[in-house]
Amino acid sequence: MRVVAKFQFLASDFQGGGEKLTNIIQKWGQNKFDKASDGRTVIRKSRLSANFDRRVEITGESSQTTFDVVEPIANGQLQTRVKILETSSTVNFQCALSVASDGGLIPPGVNIRSPRFIRDIVDIPAQWRVAEDAERLFAKCFDVKEAEVETLRALISASQRRFPQRLSQSS
Questions:
Q1: Which stretch of DSSP H or E encloses residue 71?
Q2: Phi, psi dihedrals of residue 2, rounded to the nearest 5°
Q3: 65-94 burial, b if ≥16 CB within 10 A, otherwise e?
Q4: Are 107 and 141 in contact (CB under 8 A)?
Q5: 24 to 2, 3, 29: CA distances (angstroms)
Q6: Is the pTM higher than 0.90?
Q7: Is 167 within 8 Å of 151 (Cβ atoms)?
Q8: Dist CA 167 CA 39 (whole Å)
Q9: Cα distance between residue 30 and residue 68, in whole Å
């Protein structure tokens, strides 16, 4: 699998944050996937088989919830891996989108977008910060209105970057 996008951010003093994030991912999964009569997980729109796994590990006051989702794409697979680590003082969120293909190259025409749950999580009223060790990885270019260029530049390059409540309105 080749990582094509990563999201890594955290919030301090976010009581119950891990549970809130977990519920958002679960809701996304319930809207995107169904259980077939034979027990398989299938994509609601295409009815193709997929995997949707959730694991929870608890150590002392810390917990980690991991979601692994694997879906078929043209000549390959798309993996969405989410990790939510909650400690007594922070909630750390990581999401990686990876692609594997039969030929080793990403097939042309594969449209990889930020999953809906990313926008839902960023919209939570928490003081989100980009994790200090986060990679800046953008698999594709994206459109930014001219009036928003300076705001985006400041967000990407600031030493203490913070997510705005809403960078842009979706239609």
A1: strand 62-73
A2: -110, 125
A3: bebebbbebeebbbbbbbbbbbbeebbbbb
A4: no
A5: 25, 23, 9
A6: no
A7: yes
A8: 40
A9: 14
| 3-state SS, residue 76 | strand
CB 126 within 8 A of CB 11: yes
CB 54 within 8 A of CB 67: yes
Beta-strand ranges (E) seen in 87-134 are 90-101, 129-130
Tokens representing residue 11 in the block: 């919030």
Written as six digits, the tokens of 130 are: 């980009």
Rg for the chain (alpha carbons), in Å? Answer: 17
H or E element that contains 155: helix 149-157
pLDDT digits (tens, 9 = 90+) for 131-154: 666 655 444 445 667 787 777 677
Residue 156: both structure tokens together: 């990407």
**Could you tell me if 29 and 138 are in contact, meaning their C-beta atoms sit under 8 angstroms apart?**
no
Residue 136 has what pLDDT?
A: 52
3-class state of residue 154 by DSSP: helix
Q: Distance (Å, rounded) from C-alpha 77 to C-alpha 97?
A: 11
CA 136 to chain centre: 14
Residue indicated by tokens 């301090």: 12
